[in-house]
Amino acid sequence: MHRHFKLSLVCFAGVMTLPGIVNMLILYWYGNTVVIYVPGPVINLLDRTGLRKIEMNDNDAGEFNENLSGDGHLGLQNEKMKTLNKRNLNVLGLSNGTGKSFLTQISELEPLIEPDICKHDKVLLAILIFSNPSNIERRQVIRETWLSDIKSPIRYAFVIARNTNSDHKTELQEEIDEHKDIVQFDFIDSYKNLTFKTVSSFKWIISVCPRASYVLKIDDDMWLNKKALTSVLVHGAIKGAIGGNCHRGQPPIRDPGNKYYIPWSSYPYGIYPPFCSGTAYVVDFQVMKDIVNVSKDVPYFPLEDIYVALCMTKLKAKVINLYGFNSVRVRANPCWLKSDWLVTTHEFLPFELRRIWNTQCYGLNQVRKVKGQFDPQIRGSLHLKRQQLNRLNMEQMFRHNAKINLRSGGRRFVKSPRLIFN
């Protein structure tokens, strides 16, 4: 009976649509596991019944550890790694030619400035916010928005390196002295050094927060919904794993004009191992320690999310696509971004983060302003049902637009209010 089911599943493998779930593409049946791929940015905003996770299990990771010929397979045997390690470091101009292992080079990159953010307390989550030294405004806005209500089980630090531009040197030093939440490393802060920055910050957080349970790595142009993230962690969705907006079967980009260009000489394989977007991912603390330890056997790679994936493959650890993590900009009502539906979204400017944070919400609806102040009827209507609040919003928007229409001599159409999406 079971065999017939497996055969029929393989024969009809393809796109499936399940009620209340996104479309899924079944790749293959392996043992007792159905391996599926769900496009990372695609989420169901209408019926969320639980956390969505796709496990790239040990069997999947094992495929990449075998030294098989042909594109699409990644050989990570020790001798090959040593050769690639020396070659990559030299070709990319990131080594003095001594052939030191990546971990050896990282161990020499001690922080110039480091705050004691944990004081060896037991911490649920340590947040590493990757920033450029010149992004002073971004960091301040983050402190005033999604970091402003940080509670004791969560700690954070901004991670920067050295800046070649000395224009903001004084302002940066004042910021460091005032907030004491910045760790700075002694190398140039650039995109090509992002892998150094990542492993260095992992190594640092291990020393200052040894009792943390999870670590979140996130960029400074992201919106983070801490409440939704905490729910993911409490449910143990990534115990012994790394999770975020993760992808499988992605090929390297071979276009020299592309920011993410990787030459064949640096990566002579057809696909990357399963990886999570570097914009934001959360990793189990023990797994992060294992990543740092195994990095001595994994060649340097300029794309930090792929480098972490190579380490995860070597460890045969799980990569999980988590519901609500987005590596792209989600154009939605701020109240959607503040709800349990979304954990992270990308590409927000400082003023947009303020707008999201300052938006007053009732469920998924904005409590709207009329003539610069909140309407008393809506302000006191939080006990009303959502349908009633929607009707109040629509009536207010109609009255407001009708006045504009009359003032313009009837030349403007009255637009329907957008209660869900902007």
TrEMBL record:
Q: GO BP, one example?
A: protein O-linked glycosylation
EC number, UniProt record = 2.4.1.-
Q: Where are the transmembrane segments?
A: 7-30
Main localization of the protein described in the UniProt heading: Golgi
Locations listed in the record: Golgi apparatus membrane
Give the signal peptide as a residue range, or say none if absent.
Answer: none
- Kindly give the membrane topology term recorded for this protein: Single-pass type II membrane protein
| One Gene Ontology cellular component annotation held by this UniProt entry | Golgi membrane
Q: From the Swiss-Prot or TrEMBL record, what is one GO molecular function term?
A: hexosyltransferase activity
**Pfam families, per the entry:** Galactosyl_T
Highest taxon listed in the record's lineage: Eukaryota
Alphabetized UniProt keyword annotations? Glycoprotein, Glycosyltransferase, Golgi apparatus, Membrane, Signal-anchor, Transferase, Transmembrane, Transmembrane helix
Family to which the UniProt record says this protein belongs: Belongs to the glycosyltransferase 31 family.
Q: What is this protein called?
A: Hexosyltransferase
